[in-house]
Amino acid sequence: MSYAPYTTAQTTALRNGVMSQVYAWMTAGLLVTGAVASFVAGSEALVNLIFGNPFMFIGLFIVQIVAVIGLSAGINRLSPAAAMAIFIGYAALNGLTFSAIFLAYTTASIASTFFVTAGTFGVMSLYGYTTKRDLSGIGNFAIMALIGLLIASVVNMFLRNEAIYWILTYAGVLIFVALTAWDTQKIKQLAASVTDETSAGRVAVLGALTLYLDFINLFLYLLRILGVRRD
């Protein structure tokens, strides 16, 4: 069965709706992660299952990495529905390991840090969406800085140097602030190239995953600074 091509007006409306879908799915992912994390933290049995067995925790971490890589690499081969299911599944898996946050920090400090993160993310995403400036240079620098951050973080796991820890923490905040703006601009450019509902759905899920990761990482680094640990 063949379908009539989209009119110019329909294509424009489709492209304009992609960003709304991106933010909607990103928000859904965050809600799933938060709900699962809160539920697990309130169950002693689940906490012991996940954190009492290092192989379980490492296994969950590996599955999360595989899910992100698989979704990013295979997005063009997946239907939008399948891609959305994988994304929500990944968000739920994230919630299992993120339950550690509710065990380590007070609920009030988690909530306040979340709102600070949301405000910072919102401002930078809006900037990335509206600016006429090409942010690719900033984005490429942020990617290189992120690689350095990851390497330095692994090294400091052995050094346990507090000064390095805080330098990396503030660097992480700056890196993901920059990435939020750049990624938003990239997603906007991808949205401008969609030609049908399938491509629009794929861009929406990939964009949601990208901004979800930016938000989560920004939140984690800000929580190091603003979070209040439980006694």
Description of the molecule:
The chain is built from 8 helices and no strands. Helix 1 runs parallel beside helix 4 (80-104). The longest helix has 34 residues, at 8-41. The chain has 231 residues and is mainly α. Helices cover 85% and strands 0% of the residues. It has one domain (10-226). The termini are far apart.
Short description:
By secondary structure, this protein is mainly α. It has one domain. It is 85% helix and 0% strand.
Number of strands: 0
- Number of separate helices: 8
Overall outline: globular
Structural class: mainly alpha
Residue share in helices? over 70%
Whole-number average pLDDT? 93
Rounded to an integer in angstroms, the radius of gyration calculated over CA atoms is: 19 Å
Strand-residue fraction? under 5%
Succession of helices and strands: HHHHHHHH
